[in-house]
Amino acid sequence: MLRLDFVPILGAGGYQLSNPSVLDMMALRASLETFNKTNIAALRKKSMALTGYLEYVLQPLVDQGRFSIITPRDPRERGAQLSLSFDQGSMEEIYEKLTRRGIICDDRKPNVIRVSPAPLYNTFEEVWEFVIALREILVEVRNHRH
Length: 146
Description:
- The protein has five helices and four strands, in the order H-H-H-E-E-H-E-E-H.
- It has a four-stranded antiparallel beta sheet, covered by helices on one side.
- It has 146 residues and is α+β, with helices and mostly antiparallel strands.
């Protein structure tokens, strides 16, 4: 049934209901332009390299017993992330300290932090800087508890 009594909301608020905003469309356009400069195969290749490098540079901390990596070691069995499992009770403090340093991770209570280097914009240097920051935070947390 066609209704002819539609009265649109006046002003910019009316666009919230039916049309994407100009800012949303500009962000989408910029995203599409970025994706046009690469392809999924190249992104996956870099993703696997970044995540593999992350695993490699985290290994000394794993060997020291600071945490364990519970994500499968085989790159074909994992995405672009590593799940780090910490001792009970320390994850929240570590996560909070990472966040205060501007490092965006994902927490999974009660004791897991997921780290995901994004191939579109993270670099190998940033992965290294993350590990340095995590190592410093682990020392802070250990000293705080003793």
